[in-house]
Amino acid sequence: MSKKLPVRTLSELTLAELAGTIVGSIGTMVQTSLAFGIPPDYTLLMVEINSYMDNMGATSNIYEDLLRVILCSDSLDASMRFCCLQMLLNEGVQCLVTDIFPLAYYERILQVIAAQGRGLRQLNMKGVWVKEECMCFMFEIVKRLPHLTRLTIPHIANDNLLKHIADYSRSMRQLDISGETDITEIGIEYLCYGECRNHLTVVDIGSLGEENICHTDVALLLQNLPNLATLKSYSFVGRSLQYIVEKKDANFKCRLVYVHDMETDAATLDAIVRTCPRLEDIYLDSPEAGILEKLCSVKLRRLKLYKFSAYELLGLAEHNGKSLYHLTVIKGYGPLEIDRLVRSCPNLIDLDFYMMDSLTFAGDSSFTNLQGLEILSSPIQKPSLRRFICHTTTLRRLAVDAVTFSDEDISSMVIEHDFYQLEDVWFTSAPYLSIASVEILMDRCPELQSVGQLSGWALTPDDVTLLRGILKSCNSSLVLSPASIFP
Questions:
Q1: Are 201 and 176 in contact (CB under 8 A)?
Q2: Which of 169, 223, 350, 460 has the most CB atoms at less than 10 Å from its CB?
Q3: Helix, strand, coil abundance in the chain, percent, nearest 5
């Protein structure tokens, strides 16, 4: 039987109770004030609650956890969440995720963070899209938060903001300024020569698949940030490296461990291999035919390919597949023999196939460490799929968009083979699987945590109601998906 729901820890229960008490106190005060026709006095309540917290010995971790729980709550309206932010943010809080707020709250949120968040090390403002008229408050945040090591502000960065980061953020290590922004070469230069240039290791910049930041500007980052290891989101890193080698410094070397490049040609891939001696993770989108062999000398841990030749992949895998732990392939042309991948990449942990022309498996060997397998929009015959799954009993996650397995197939597979580590099963379309398959999975897979997509299985609403009743009576932690399709 799948695992039981764990007993909530005392800390979790206490945190939930305390958060509920704080929110309830605010709600009661607002209702009482409205009943008497007077505006709510938030200041007095904030003083009382903070005094109570101090008297009870609340640590900075408690304030931080309360903010995390309250700000991400979908059931609380924005005014309540903002009030709690104003009440609980203090210099002891080191990590803050604002989550999503309406536009009307942006200015006030920025003012609160600037005034009360001096101790923050990590700030994620992904749900607060600052407009130009509020940018001055963003400047104040950067000035007043000198200890920031990680800042996430997608879609809002401009040259002036980068200048403030360069001038005041001495400890910045990870910076997310991705998305559609107003960054130019001027802003990039500020960052290159700023206080944090020697500390930055991760810069998330640009938009996937779009060169909204010129590759020559990104080349400035590569040349002037000596410890830069990752340029997330940017899709033309190879082009930037090629520009440096051909126009600036033929002997250039960098510390990049991850590279994403689009429409890579032979010269670009040569530049990548030549300039990135630490490279272990690469994503090539639509590489030129016949160039994957140039990666044979690189000990990659992760490889992601889009629009490529399956034959070339197998050739590359035979040369350096033993170092690979994660492989994602999308829209590969030609048949792909999984047997050859098994022989070439014995240490794979995750394997994802998307929109492949065709997949086959006919061998008896297997991946000994494979934990995650996804096969989506990739034709594979039932015997091949069944044989592959049965030879991969180490799986924790299994997702296939369409299967023709019957209840008898599932029963024989899980009885004859021990899937003792399997946690998640996802079959989007399984028209021949009924309640019997769910029950046998529950019975034979002790680590099972979720099963879906049951709306594509041969189950009635009554079947699912029965299953949920059984799970509830057994206190099982198993989740049946989706929750909204069936009553």
A1: no
A2: 169
A3: 45, 20, 40
